[in-house]
Amino acid sequence: MRITVMTVGEQIISLEVDPHESVENVKALLEVETQVPLQQQQLLYNGREMKNNDKLSALGVKDEDLVMMVSNSAAISAPSNNLGLNPDGSAVNPGAFQQHLRSDSNTMAQLFQADPELAQAVLGNDLNKLQELLRQRHRQRSELRRQQEEEFALLEADPFDVEAQKKIEAAIRQKGIDENWAAALEYNPEAFARVIMLYVDMEVNGVPLKAFVDSGAQSTIISKSCAERCGLLRLLDQRYKGIAHGVGQSEILGRIHVAPIKIGNIFYPCSFMVLDAPNMEFLFGLDMLRKHQCIIDLKENVLRMGGGEVSVPFLQEKDIPSRFLDEERYSKEASSSGNPVTSGTTVKKNDPPAGGQSSGVARGGATQGPDFEAKVAKLVELGFGREAVIQALRLFDGNEEQAAGFLFGG
C-alpha cells in the first residue's frame, strides 16, 4: 500500500510499504529520504504516536493515509544547521532554506500539489512572507494535532461522565457542520460568493442613472439629490410628507406624481417618493413593477417591461458604481440614517388637510356616511373599481384628492 508522510518542513513523501511493516522500518526509509536520524523521528497517525514495534495494520493505517513526522529535537536536523526550523516553525536561515527547496525539483513539485501558496512564496522574493507562511503552517499543524488528541481523549473518556458526553456531543455536531460545509464547497460553491443586487440602466427625465430594482420595496423611491439632478424637484408635492420604515426610518420629503423614465427605447410614466436617502439614488419598487407588468428574468438576466416588449440586461459588477457595492459602508449608513430603501420598505404618510377639511377628523368619521359614499361614487366614475376606491379613501382618511393621486399613480 502507499502512505503519505508530511514533515514539519512541509516536505511531502510518498512511500510504498507493506501493511504489516513495522514503524521502525518506515522510519528507516524516512531517514534516507529526509536525512533525519531514526532516533529523532516521531510519527503520528490521527494524533497518536506510532511506536517502533507497532505494525501499520495494527494501528489501522490504510492505503493513501496521511502520517505526520515531527522531530524530537528543538530544530529539525538537516544537511546544514542553516536549513533547520525554529520551534515556531520559521526557518533558521530563510534564504538558505529557500534556496535548498528551489534546488530540489521533486520537493517543489510535491509542494505545488500539496500547498501552492507556500510553493509560490518559496519561488518569490519576499522572505518575510515565506517566514509568516511557515509559522502559519506550524500553527495549523499544532492545532490539528491538538484536535486529534482531544478526539482520541474523548474516545477513551468515561461513558458515564456528563461533561465528557457533552464534549462528545459538541464534537459530533461540529463534525456534521464541517461535513455540511465541505459538501457545500463541492456542490454549491456559488453560495459562498457575494450576491450582486439587480441594477439596470435607465433615464429619468432624460438623465441617465443606475436604477436599483427591488421587488421587496413598496414604493419607487428617488433621492432628493437625484431628483434635483434630474430637474424634478420643482414638481415635489410636499403634502405627501411622512416616514418610510425599513432598516430604521427616514423622512419622506414628498411625492413627484408623474415623470418620464426611459427603459430601452420606450418611455414610461412613473411616480416617485422623494426621500432624503443618500445611499440609494433611485429604487425601482414594486408599485411601478406592477404597473408596467415587469418580469425579473434571472435565467436570461434581464428585466422585461410591459410583459416583454422591452428587455434590458441587469448590470454586471464592473458596471455598477463602487459606492453601491461598498456593503460595509452601506450597512453602517443604513443603520445610522435609517435608510428605508432595503427590502420590505413600508410607507406611513402624514397626510395634510386638503380642501378646507380639518386635520383633526377622526378616521371612523372620514370613512363612513353620505359624504364618504359621495366621494366613492365620484372616484368610481373615473374608472376605478369600488373596492380599490374604498381602500384608497380609507388609507388617506377620506381625503379625496390624495386618494385620487394614489389611484392614478398606482
Automatic annotation (TrEMBL):
Start and end residues of each UBA domain: 369-410
GO CC annotation: cytoplasm
Biased composition (Polar residues): 333-347
Keyword rRNA-binding: no
GO MF annotations in UniProt: aspartic-type endopeptidase activity; polyubiquitin modification-dependent protein binding
Highest taxon of the lineage: Eukaryota
Broad class of the protein's primary localization: cytoplasm
Domain Ubiquitin-like, first and last residues per copy: 1-70
Alphabetical list of Pfam families matching this protein: Asp_protease, Ddi2_HDD, UBA, ubiquitin
Subcellular location: Cytoplasm
SMART domains on file: UBA, UBQ
PROSITE patterns tied to this protein: UBA (PS50030), UBIQUITIN_2 (PS50053)
Residues covered by region (Disordered): 329-367
Keyword Magnesium included in the entry's annotation: no
Keywords, sorted A to Z: Aspartyl protease, Cytoplasm, Hydrolase, Protease, Protein transport, Transport
GO biological process, one term: protein transport
Family: Belongs to the DDI1 family.
PANTHER family for this protein: ASPARTYL PROTEASE DDI-RELATED, AT13091P
Protein name from the UniProt record: DNA damage-inducible protein 1
UniProt organism field: Populus deltoides
Lineage: Eukaryota, Viridiplantae, Streptophyta, Embryophyta, Tracheophyta
